[in-house]
Amino acid sequence: MSDIHDTATELFTELTGRTPDGLWSAPGRVNLIGEHTDYNDGFVLPFAIPHRTVAAVGVRDDGIGRVRVASTFAAEPVEVALDELGTLFPTLRQAQGPSSQGKPAVPEWAAYPLGVAWALAEAAGAAGAGIDIAIASDVPVGAGLSSSAAIEGATASALNDLWNAGLDKTALARIGRKAENEAVGAPTGIMDQMASMLGEPDAAIFLDCRSLEAQLVPLGVAEAGLAILVMDTRVKHAHSTGGYGERRAACERGAAIMGVPSLRDVSVGDLSRAETLMDDVTFRRMRHVVTENQRVLDTVRVLREQGARAIGDLLVASHASMRDDFEISVPELDAAVESALSAGALGARMTGGGFGGAAIALIEADAVATVSDAVNAAFAASGFAAPHLFTVTPSAGAQRDA
User: Fold this and answer.
1) Which uninterrupted H or E stretch holds 332?
2) Which helix (H) or strand (E) holds 192?
3) Do the bridges between strand 131-137 and strand 66-71 make them parallel or antiparallel, or are there none, so unpaired?
4) What are the beta bridge partners of residue 25?
5) Distance (Å, rounded) from C-alpha 122 to C-alpha 126?
6) Considering the chain, what is the average pLDDT of its residues?
7) Residue 47 per-residue DSSP state
8) Dihedral, CA atoms, 11, 15, 16, 20, nearest 10 degrees?
């Protein structure tokens, strides 16, 4: 963490010639189970990871109402007048639409912090003073570990403090989602932002995405002699492109056919009737969400009654559903899951939105090297690029660090 703090501070000083007013950080997340349920008003069980994004932020000393952002992701900073943010993002959404060939109004990396500034100003009733923001991160990008929510959480936490907005963590999560949906154009739910804001050590967040009620569920992974291995396939994904939106549209179509507000209102017992009412693709998309919601509830119950060692089969069933019904896996993700299970993992599944990114495996703590070797060998045998493998522990959410 000190390296990321130093990098963000140095970038801020290069940008402004002074030191920042403070440092704020927010983590990426791993979703233990509950994929594509969040935007269907369902249940999810993510946890924050140690990898974080740091925002070095300061009020501008020239009195000008502009926001300037710099990042280690890009060579050049981006600067926008605060009162122009409201007109900027409709242009960005239109430019990124599938039928448009226009250039985005700002680079996508900058749309995350700028979108947060816009959404927070709307929530607070007005923007505060002009702001400079410098961002550094060690959250892997495009790996399904929510690097975007980490940027949003760090930025929102900083602006909430420096603009004296007085918003709570749930409100800041909503701001992050608004930025991602309306500024970046990614039709995601609120799971990532809530996990990044509310994370706690050694706990997952059992989140009802309809009510936003959140409960901490102790994981006890280390206590059980286990570890969680992240297997980043290095296959990049982007939620603002078509596959994610198509899945969301199918879910909305299924809910409409069933005559309910969202798939949260469909139970496993309704599936036999549903299959007679819709085409096969819509039904399978719906079946994944409905059964995944039940798997989240079952996982929470099993964790509380039996502990982490007993959830492996639920993880495996979740991956099969995403692979076969929701069709969001890729060969690299399947290889990671299958090779980890063959090497003795208790359970494994892809995590995140799919079409690339990472999988996770629940493994014996003393088997990290063995399972890692098996995954690396499977990738090499298939001609895939080497994966990035590392363990994670449930960690703290967004906070001010300095």
Assistant:
1) helix 331-342
2) helix 191-198
3) parallel
4) 54, 399
5) 6
6) 93
7) E
8) -30
More confident residue, 44 or 107: 44
| Residue showing tokens 């992974």 | 221
Active-site pick, 192, 232, 325, 401: 192
| Residues near 51 by beta carbon (within 8 Å), at least 6 away in sequence | 27, 28, 137, 138, 139, 140, 145, 150, 392
pLDDT at 66: 97
The stretch 234-244 carries a mean pLDDT of 73
Strands 43-59 and 131-137: antiparallel
Q: Coil, strand or helix: which one is 398?
A: coil
* Beta-carbon count within 10 A of 378 CB: 20
Between CA 132 and CA 373 the distance in angstroms is: 44
Torsion of CA 136, 328, 29, 318, to 10 degrees: -170
| Greater model confidence, 105 or 279 | 279
What amino acid is encoded at 275 in this protein?
E
Q: Could you tell me the sign of the dihedral formed by the alpha carbons of 192, 356, 360, 145, in that order?
A: negative
Buried b (16+ CB within 10 A) or exposed e, 9-23: bebbeebbeeebbbb
In 3D space, the residue among 62, 71, 78, 74 whose CA is nearest the CA of residue 12 turns out to be 71
- For the question of residue 3 being annotated catalytic, the response is no
